Here is the input.
Amino acid sequence: MVNTIWRSVNPKIENIVVLFISFISIILSGISPDITLFGMVVFPIPILLLYLKVDKIKFSIFSGLMVLASLVVNGFWGTFSCCVGTILVGIVAAEAIKRGKNGVAIVKALTLTIMIAVSIIGFVFLIKTGESLNKLLDDAQKSYEQRIDSMAQLYRDNNMSEDIVKQLLQYKSQFDINEVVNQLPYIVAFSSLIMATITYLLMRMVLSEASIKLPQKAGFGYFYFSNLYGAFLIGIFSIGIIFKSFKFQIGDVISYGAMSILMYSLILNAYATIYYFLKKKFNFNGALILAILVLSSFLVGNVTVAIAGFAEMMLNFRHLDPHSLRKVKKEH
Here is the structure.
């Protein structure tokens, strides 16, 4: 347990403050799905502090009371969302700190947890509204087309160039909501990574004066994807292909989403590897490495970079992956 978080505050008052802020966070995060989703960056931090401050029995009691209070204020669905999006994320972060995980491991754990939470909350939203995914997509498509038509009419009323109007109408004809849906898994994954990184940075700020060993800082060069992660995504992609062969619409989303996430994960893995070797082996400063990475992103195609990331994931050049196939071969 953490005896003190803020040195300038009396420990007893500190306990009350942490508990009070945790209650407020739970109540606020359950008001609506939007608040739950955007609040995942901030609301789990009080839960993290509470988990670190008290033993598990007290935490369970306090959590139960907070859930009951949320049930009264927000009802079942709001409470369910805040449990998944706030309490779960806070517990995962706290457990990672207790187990002495470094910054990269914590960000990865938070990213996965937030991705799962977002997916569950989205599924709950569909159940709560009672609308099918197809109907929501059709409504979104019609809403977009109506906005384009309104803008085109507004331009005509204000005697704007007809070329601009034609360009708008061209956007309307080219827009396909299904393409957006296919990108959703990647969007969720990338957004979750950003949210997890922000949460981690805020967490370090809050715990900077705490009587606990902070997570070891690990730079971007230590960010890696295990080959187990790659195998998992390839498996998901295969499942999507199977669904697609049976004419299930969700097959496109699953296969395209898994491949998009894998592709950009490999790109990130490649850039992290470049950063690692330039920093560790050649002692380049951060600004110069950043300039090299930015320049590489313009000069080298994504497929080439992804192949490099795949090679690192399989061959474990940085010796960071404990599940590396290369390591297993050496041991045998």
Observations:
- Confidence is low (pLDDT under 50) at residues 328-332.
